[in-house]
Each structure stands twice: as structure tokens, then as C-alpha cells.
Write a structure and sequence with these properties.
The protein is mostly helical. The protein has a single domain, classed as Ferritin, core subunit, four-helix bundle (Ferritin). Helices cover about 85% and strands about 0% of the residues. The protein is elongated and about 55 Å long. The model has no long low-confidence stretch (mean pLDDT about 95).
């Protein structure tokens, strides 16, 4: 981690981390969608892929308003969570469909919770730094991440977990 001299330095580093995280997620979501057995879960992953691609564009706007070229700093947390999802996919032939889908939702929600924490922090830093337009953009992303988490929770409690329990 680079030496942080100011809150703005930390803010930029966290933006770069989130930018990388979103790029990693765009590569992982198609794999999750392909592995999912529930049509609703497949659709949820495909929908979130489109949202994630849009979130990258929103982060591009944040970097532009900082008069910076977007830069990625490897997000080790997302990297680990994506690897965990990959391990679940690798073991799918040994799992019942409902159990696999429940596991995929669990892995996806870990990522969502990490993103919710990251964007919550970025929103607060933007507020403190007086970056109102950036705060608005980051808040919109935060709301999308919360909505995705809620959709996954509803899908798991209404359908997938019951199928996993019956397996």
C-alpha cells in the first residue's frame, strides 16, 4: 500500500481498488451464471453483470471529475472471494443443484457485502472531501449493490435454500 498523506490519497487508492474489483466481478459473473441451475439465479447474475458494467462507467466519471485516468489497484479481497466462487464451481459435479445454487448465492453475497462496505466508505470520504457529484455517483452504486444483495437474499429464502435443504 502506498504511503497515505491525506484522506484524498486514501480515497483515490480505495477508488482504484473498487475499480479493479468491478472489473474482476465482470469476469466472474458469467461463470456464476453458467454454473447456476436455477433460471432465476442465472438471470440475477446476468442482470448484475450489466449493472456492474454500468458501475465501471460510473467510476470512470468519478475519475474524470478528479481529472485522473482510471487506474486499477489489485483488490485482493475481491480476488480471494472470486477464487472462492471458482472453487464452488469446480466442485459443482459433486453437488446437488439446490446446494450448488445456495453456495453460489453465498459466494456472491460475500462479494456484495464487501462492495457495500467499500462504497459506504467511499461515499463518506467523498462527503468529507466536498466531492458532492462524486458522492452522488458512489451513492447510486451503493444503492445498486444493496438492491442486488436483497434480490439474492429473497431468491435464497424463497426458493434456493429450500431446494438445498431437500437435497
Amino acid at each position: 500500500m502506498a504511503k497515505m498523506k491525506s484522506l484524498k490519497d486514501l480515497y483515490i487508492e480505495m477508488l482504484e481498488d473498487s475499480y479493479d474489483s468491478e472489473h474482476q466481478i465482470t469476469k466472474a459473473l458469467p461463470k456464476l451464471a453458467k454454473a447456476a441451475t436455477s433460471p432465476k439465479l442465472k438471470q440475477a447474475f446476468e442482470t448484475h453483470l450489466k449493472e456492474t458494467e454500468d458501475q465501471i462507467k460510473k467510476l470512470d466519471q468519478v475519475f474524470k471529475s478528479l481529472e485522473m485516468k482510471p487506474k486499477r489497484k489489485t483488490c485482493e479481497a475481491t480476488k480471494g472471494l472470486v477464487e472462492e466462487g471458482g472453487e464452488m464451481i469446480d466442485e459443482k459435479d459433486e453437488m446437488e443443484d439446490g446446494v450448488l445454487d445456495a453456495g453460489l448465492i453465498g459466494c456472491a453475497q460475500k462479494v456484495e457485502h464487501y462492495e457495500i462496505a467499500s462504497y459506504g466508505t467511499l461515499c463518506e470520504f467523498a462527503r468529507l472531501l466536498g466531492f458532492k457529484d462524486q458522492q452522488k455517483i458512489l451513492s447510486a452504486i451503493l444503492d445498486e449493490e444493496k438492491a442486488t444483495d436483497e434480490k439474492l437474499s429473497k431468491l435464497s429464502t424463497a426458493q434456493v435454500n429450500h431446494q438445498a435443504k431437500a437435497a
